[in-house]
């Protein structure tokens, strides 16, 4: 075993003090220890020798303490002992301390291990939750896909039904054409018989024969007259044929030509002799119709017309079809709605005043309020928009429906109703973000809505073959009108009753259906007053005369009938050459406008 004497230790301390900068202390130690007399060669002692010896001694003690434990612990970390512990404690105390710290370390490792085992379980649980969430999202997405597919299927089904309906209409039109030709031949035959009788009468007056010959001529003329009076009899074979006495003569008809496609809508200006029409040729037209009879107007030459073009360049763009139009109450502005989703405002001279663009689908209905400061539009994009005419900007968009908006109608200057293919009706108010009233009851698409003249009752009609009358005072309908057998396309209130220009006449509701009939309803009781049957095809339009005494109806059977409301019978008939989409009266009630599928607009004189 190697030993170190005191002189060698003193020298190591001396070198430590000297190297550490303690010069005076080193000198004192060297003088007192007589190191100058030592035989130690300082060149053989490396710098920091004392520190090195002390470190190695500590390491030895640490090794000794650990090697005294169980052999299985040899590979354990020696970091359990601090240098101060090695100097202040003996080997036994060091071993005790190492054992305690190892035990504590082992417990910590066990806890860490248990924690590590729990983490995968927690991770697994979180993964299961995420997987469950993904499954739910996937189910929701699949449900949305199924709903969209159902919607597409319903759209395709409606398109197939409409296509079948069109084919049926075409077949009926062919049959009607054949019947029309037969009627025309019959009329010509009757006219020839009349002319023949007149000619005989004329010959009778001009002949200057003797009395015997005159008697023979008189007898012969009487025989001819008897034959002539039997001429019209075949007109009664078909019960649907119209009596000749009620046919409107051509002298009372003005045909307005110029449109190059079917004419869907028409409306008289409320203040003048202007008739507006809208067509599938991407134009609207404003016709100036004279105040006198049609016969006198025809002698003055062609009517003046303003063409309101909804296109730039191409004239065959179906996206520009004019689907709806409406005059303001002063008759100074005309609003048109188009298949391109834009509403346009025109002056009565046909100048474009403003274009209102915000809808994302075709506009099917638009209406001015009575004050004329707001315009209301309803679109396939499921919304209705109120436009501020002063600023030319949209004021509020109402997004309550879940499907295309088919019709809109003002109740007063700030409140209105909307209907949709989602079977719902909403009553809304400008400035409110929620519906004022919701009417649910129809089982099919709601095609049209109309407020009565006082804004008290709302009428609606639907593909479910019913019309209904609603009141803001209750959620369910006041009257459910169920006499029709097919879809009801349109409804109209009579301009009668309290608050109208005809207060002494009762208020009546008219409904027109694809079952080819028109029905008049008692509003108070919901009772059917009259069933008007004369058309052979769906009736698309009805309109009351301003005095409420007559009702005009237009059908795909090419006939326009004028009915006496009181007597519930046809008093006048016009037979055109195409299906009729809309009929309308002028403010005086002496002219009727109608638009046809064969591209023309006609104006009829009405006199009783």
UniProtKB/TrEMBL annotation:
One Gene Ontology MF term: transcription corepressor activity
Each WD repeat, start to end: 256-297, 315-347, 356-397, 439-480, 481-531, 532-573
Chief location: nucleus
Record's subcellular location: Nucleus
Keywords: Nucleus, Repeat, Transcription, Transcription regulation, WD repeat
InterPro entries for this protein: Ebi-like (IPR045183), LisH (IPR006594), WD40/YVTN_repeat-like_dom_sf (IPR015943), WD40_PAC1 (IPR020472), WD40_repeat_CS (IPR019775), WD40_repeat_dom_sf (IPR036322), WD40_rpt (IPR001680)
GO biological process, one term: regulation of transcription by RNA polymerase II
PROSITE patterns: LISH, WD_REPEATS_1, WD_REPEATS_2, WD_REPEATS_REGION
Comp. bias (Basic and acidic residues): 184-225
GO cellular component: histone deacetylase complex
Residues annotated as transmembrane: none
Protein name (record): Transcription factor WD40-like family
Species of provenance: Helianthus annuus (Common sunflower)
Pfam families membership: LisH, WD40
Region span, Disordered: 102-161, 184-242
């Amino acid at each position: 075993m190697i030993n170190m004497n005191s002189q060698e230790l003193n020298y190591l301390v001396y070198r430590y003090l000297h190297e550490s900068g303690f010069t005076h202390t080193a000198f004192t130690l060297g003088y007192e220890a007589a190191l100058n007399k030592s035989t130690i060669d300082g060149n053989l002692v490396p710098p920091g020798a004392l520190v090195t010896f002390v470190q190695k001694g500590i390491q030895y003690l640490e090794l000794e303490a650990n090697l005294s434990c169980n052999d299985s612990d040899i590979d354990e970390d020696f970091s359990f002992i601090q240098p101060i512990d090695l100097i202040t404690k003996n080997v036994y105390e060091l071993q005790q301390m190492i054992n305690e710290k190892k035990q504590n370390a082992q417990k910590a490792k066990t806890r860490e291990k248990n924690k590590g085992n729990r983490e995968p379980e927690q991770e697994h649980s979180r993964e299961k939750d995420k997987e469950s969430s993904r499954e739910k999202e996937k189910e929701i997405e699949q449900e949305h896909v199924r709903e969209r597919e159902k919607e597409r299927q319903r759209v395709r089904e409606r398109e197939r039904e409409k296509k079948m309906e069109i084919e049926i209409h075409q077949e009926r039109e062919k049959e009607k054409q054949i019947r029309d030709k037969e009627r025309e031949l019959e009329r010509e035959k009757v006219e020839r018989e009349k002319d023949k009788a007149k000619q005989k009468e004329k010959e009778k007056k001009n002949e200057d024969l003797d009395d015997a010959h005159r008697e023979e001529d008189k007898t012969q003329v009487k025989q001819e007259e008897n034959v002539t009076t039997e001429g019209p009899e075949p007109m009664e074979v078909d019960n649907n044929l119209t009596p000749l006495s009620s046919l409107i003569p051509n002298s009372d008809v003005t045909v307005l030509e110029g449109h190059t496609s079917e004419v869907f809508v028409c409306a008289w200006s409320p203040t003048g002799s202007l008739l507006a029409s809208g067509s599938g040729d991407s134009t609207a037209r404003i016709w100036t119709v004279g105040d006198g009879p049609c016969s006198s107007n025809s002698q003055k030459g062609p009517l003046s017309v303003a063409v309101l073009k909804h296109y730039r360049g191409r004239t065959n763009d179906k996206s520009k079809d004019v689907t709806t139009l409406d005059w303001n109450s002063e008759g100074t502005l005309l609003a048109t709605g188009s298949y391109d989703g834009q509403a346009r405002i025109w002056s009565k001279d046909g100048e474009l005043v403003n274009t209102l663009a915000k809808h994302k689908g075709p506009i099917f209905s638009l209406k001015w309020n009575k004050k004329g400061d707001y315009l209301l539009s309803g679109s396939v994009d499921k919304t209705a928009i109120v436009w501020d005419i002063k600023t030319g900007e949209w004021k509020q968009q109402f997004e309550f429906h879940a499907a295309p908006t088919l019709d809109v109608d003002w109740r007063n200057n700030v409140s209105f109703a909307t209907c949709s293919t989602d079977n719902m009706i909403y009553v809304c108010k400008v400035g409110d973000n929620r519906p004022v009233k919701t009417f649910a009851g129809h089982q099919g698409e709601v095609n049209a809505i109309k407020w009565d003249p006082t804004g008290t009752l709302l009428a609606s009609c639907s593909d479910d073959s019913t019309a209904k009358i609603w009141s803001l005072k209750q959620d369910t309908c006041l009257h459910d009108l169920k006499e029709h057998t097919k879809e009801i396309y349109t409804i109209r209130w009579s301009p009668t009753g309290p608050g109208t220009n005809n207060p002494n006449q009762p208020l009546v509701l008219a409904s027109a259906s694809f079952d080819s009939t028109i029905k008049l309803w008692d509003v108070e009781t919901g009772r059917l007053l009259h069933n008007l049957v004369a058309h052979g095809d769906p009736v698309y339009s009805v309109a009351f005369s301003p005095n409420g005494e007559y009702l005009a109806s237009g059908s795909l059977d090419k006939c326009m009938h004028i009915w006496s409301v009181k007597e519930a019978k046809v008093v006048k008939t016009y037979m055109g050459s195409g299906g009729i989409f809309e009929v309308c009266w002028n403010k005086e009630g002496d002219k009727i406008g109608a638009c046809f599928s064969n591209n023309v607009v006609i104006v009829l004189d009405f006199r009783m």
